[in-house]
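Worked example

This section walks through a single chain of length 215. The input is the sequence exactly as stored; nothing has been trimmed or padded.
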Amino acid sequence: MNLIFFGPPGGGKGTQARLLAARRGLPQVATGDILREAGAAGTPLGREARRYMDTGDLVPDAVMIGLMQERLARPDVRAGFVLDGFPRTLPQAEALEAVLAAMERRIDRAVEFRVGEETVIRRLGGRRVCQAAGHISHVEFAPPRVEGICDVDGSPLLQREDDRPEVIRRRMEVYRNEIPPVLDFYRVRALLVALDAEGDEEAVYARLEETLARP
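Given that input, the structure is written out below as tokens.
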């Protein structure tokens, strides 16, 4: 099954993609992971992507399409995947359709995660990432044993620049402005379904499985 998860930053799509990966064996293809990997590698595309991410703006289509095409060519996604955070624009959606058609593949379902702004700010604003290896904790939902220190490797826990409230609001504004044409692209193809993404991850996952089980 080839899936796309849509939703604002902090909407829960990444958490649910990881659960699906663990329980169904569908690899999570996350835009954020791809962009951070490219940025860490220091490639020209990666440096350009990092500049946009730090301000909460969308990464240009040409950059994202190129990175995503490379990712979908890897063998681990041949049996199915969950796209997390892509496509974000209509040109990206059209390019993805062309890329998949060339591979004789298609999207089976597009899921829109719906969640309120205050929930998003609460989720992302409390997230902390360890400096050494990127392990994630949360000041409210998964606090470390020692404040400010990663439980796994003892390195300092930091707040990512794009998790600060002012950047979160900017990211949500960008999402709300840019995503409607993309949702319409999948709606007219009868692939789009809405999912209530409020609540704890297991409750959301149960609703997700119910949604995916529908014909």
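What to look for: Residues 165-178 form the longest helix (14 residues).
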